[in-house]
Amino acid sequence: MFCGDVEKAGGRILKDYRTGSLGKFALELPLDLDKKRAREAAAAAAAAVAREQKELRKKEGNGF
Q1: Nearest-angstrom CA–CA distance, 7 and 53
Q2: Which of 2, 24, 25, 29 is the most buried (most CB within 10 A)?
Q3: pTM of the model as a whole
Q4: What is the distance between the terminal CA atoms of the chain, rounded to a whole angstrom?
Q5: Tens digits of per-residue pLDDT, 37-56?
Q6: Structural domain boundaries of the chain?
Q7: What is the DSSP letter of 4?
């Protein structure tokens, strides 16, 4: 399509991104992505602990 013309291809990608033709997606820096994954992992771990505590309370007859 662009016959090796990197400038033209890059311009088209930017144009399509700006107009929304590429759909919705976020441009994130790798550092931001690492922070997001760390937050998600911490939230998942907290949820797992909460589930385990709930199960223990159920077994002990103190289920809330």
Answers
A1: 58
A2: 2
A3: 0.47
A4: 63
A5: 999 999 999 999 999 999 99
A6: 6-60
A7: T
